[in-house]
Design goal:
Blueprint: E1 22-23, E2 36-43, E3 49-55, E4 62-68, E5 75-77, E6 83-85, H1 88-98, H2 106-123, E7 127-129, H3 130-144, H4 146-158, H5 162-171
Parallel strand pairs: 5-7
Antiparallel strand pairs: 1-2, 2-3, 3-4, 5-6
Helix pairs in contact: 1-2, 1-5, 3-4, 4-5
This protein binds zinc ion.
Zinc ion (ZN) is lined by residues 28, 30-31, 33, 56, 58-59, 61.
Length: 172
């Protein structure tokens, strides 16, 4: 389940009074403001998703979101053998924590997540070892930033679970 921000406005409040280009329920990742304006929408090269360039009207930071068709559920097999649905947000958050204060942009993180997700979809498998996903992240992070790579690697080598990784990075 996705975490819902405390101040997120429920989707139900989006009505005819709101301009269609402003989504009330999408909040700004920088200041958590609940309005974002869509500057540009276009399909990604392979046509599998819609890329939206957004701007926060409050802090003026810009960010990108991707809208995809929900497909077949992919399961991750964790170190203890349990299965759980692949969660791109969890993966994204794990990488975001590894790049904290490092010269890697959110766009580059989104690119990594998108590439990994695309590879997973292309491979048409229904389950994957979380270790394989970790390795895929590491090989991409290594090209971008050594510190972020080390941070991800140190946690990844110890934990084969992305939620464990998230909490460990958070404590450090
Ligand atoms: Zn903002």
């Amino acid at each position: 389940m996705k975490k819902v921000a405390k101040n997120a406005t429920p989707a139900a409040t989006v009505n005819a009074k709101n301009p269609p280009r402003i989504l009330k329920f999408m909040h700004c990742p920088f200041c958590a403001h609940t309005d974002t304006s869509v500057l540009e929408s276009r399909a990604t090269q392979d046509g599998s998703s819609l890329r939206r360039r957004r701007e926060c009207p409050k802090c003026r930071n810009r960010f990108t979101t991707y809208e995809r068709v929900e497909g077949q559920i992919l399961y991750c097999i964790k170190k203890d053998g349990r299965r759980e649905p692949f969660d791109r947000e969890k993966l994204r958050n794990g990488i975001l924590k590894a790049i904290h204060k490092r010269p890697v942009s959110i766009e580059q993180v989104d690119q990594i997540v998108q590439e990994i997700e695309k590879d997973l979809i292309k491979s048409k498998i229904s389950e994957i070892d979380t270790k394989k996903i970790g390795k895929a992240v590491l090989s991409r992070l290594k090209k971008l930033d050594q510190v972020a790579w080390l941070r991800f690697a140190s946690v990844y080598l110890e934990f084969a679970d992305l939620s464990d990784f998230e909490s460990a990075i958070h404590k450090s």
